[in-house]
Model the fold of this input.
Amino acid sequence: MKHLFAILCLILLGGAANDPILVPEVSQHEVEVRQGFNGTELLLYGAILDPQGLRAGREYDIVVVLKGPTSAIIVREKRRFAGIWINGASSEFRSAPGYYAVAASRPIKDIVNDRTAAIYEMGLPFLQLSPIGAIDPVKQQRFSSGLVGEMQKDGLYQQDDHGVTVSEQVLYQAHIRLPSSVPVGMYTAETLAVSRGRVVASAIARVEVKKQGFERIIAEFAEGYGLLYGLLAVAVSVAMGLTAGRLFSRT
Done:
């Protein structure tokens, strides 16, 4: 009801009378990660209203981008030396998203050109990964592709060019999977309405992924007392090793 009231107010205001309006929503604004968490599925849905009578699915395409918290990531190549695999060259990215998923009503390459896709980060090839330092463009592309490929294997990067369905030419929805390894933090779910290759409206909803229960206690302890957590982890490992050694020596 609040969204509907806001829509009516905006339509009645003269300044934005000709602008399309997006009303996005998410099935869960909070995702709790507990012991045994196997992942979950989010439903991103909403409506697009146009005072001029243009309709989604005909005059509009819908693209939904769900992005998780960013952090610095180091990508290392593996190379074979004397019969074993060792770390080779590496590249560091300043702000790679820990999770990224995009869904569209039809293939993104048919909706916008590369420049627009890069501006709005529509699609895996157009992620802004922000490498640190000067590096050969060909080498950098190899590292970027390697990072995207590894994240795709883990289900943390996804792209579905037919993942948005439109009904009644007004309502849209997209199902996006969060894997069990999804990082915690604040996520942004951005919906983009595209007409004739141009983004004409956008709106953002937010989702928070957070640990609960014993996992939250461990995470907060590790973050607040990193050195002590590390020492305890080593002590526990040593104790388990000694216990296992004694048990096996008796058999």
